[in-house]
Design a protein that fits this description.
about 80% helix
Length: about 200
């Protein structure tokens, strides 16, 4: 694993974090309606489980691929199709209006944990991104670095988002640029899916 691998991983991760999925939308709604503290707590719940899924994917995929080499190709194809599907949905929903709803401020961390824990797409996304970016057979230290990096990026992203979204200026700015943010995220994830399909 090289530093370039981590950079590419972080770019893909940030694109995924900024996409209008359930975690992202609940994060916005919680911050706008329950305040900055609740938003940060929710983000810590989301980030902790996301990093756990990355750890599980790193620990499990390498063993599966050694026992069943054909599984590597299968995961690549399934992962690529899923990434292209996400990119298509993002592009198509770019013009949708963001709606908010009242969310309670208590138990925000638990809410974040449950959102990612009960979302099977998080596992598939983690596996797809790891397969396309990182080489097989990484060491324990390299795996630990990837997981720690993932956790730090998630926590920084959600904390910055909660702080930003708690201000009227930034929330209004995001709503105005939502279409373009969604389109850029769609292109990044679509390119990652195509790369996954075409690489050896």
């Amino acid at each position: 694993m090289t530093f370039e691998h981590l950079i590419i991983f972080n770019i893909a991760l940030l694109a995924a974090l900024a996409s209008p999925g359930p975690a992202f939308l609940v994060m916005i709604r919680t911050t706008l309606n329950a305040g900055r503290t609740a938003g940060i707590a929710l983000g810590f719940g989301l980030g902790s489980v996301a990093a756990m899924w990355t750890l599980m994917a790193l620990l499990g995929l390498d063993t599966v691929f050694k026992i069943f080499p054909w599984a590597y190709t299968a995961v690549k194809i399934i992962g690529a199709v899923y990434l292209l599907y996400i990119a298509f949905k993002m592009w198509r929903s770019a013009n949708d209006v963001l709606e908010t709803e009242t969310k309670p401020s208590n138990r925000a961390f638990l809410q974040g944990v449950l959102i990612n824990l009960l979302n099977p797409k998080s596992v598939l996304f983690a596996a797809a991104v790891l397969v396309v970016i990182f080489p097989k057979g990484m060491t324990f230290a390299e795996n630990a670095t990837v997981v720690l990096n993932h956790l730090i990026v998630e926590l920084m992203f959600y904390t910055a988002m909660a702080i930003g979204m708690s201000t009227k200026t930034v929330s209004a700015f995001y709503i105005r640029l939502k279409k373009y943010i969604d389109r850029v995220s769609s292109v990044v994830l679509g390119a990652l899916g195509i790369r996954l399909l075409t690489q050896n």
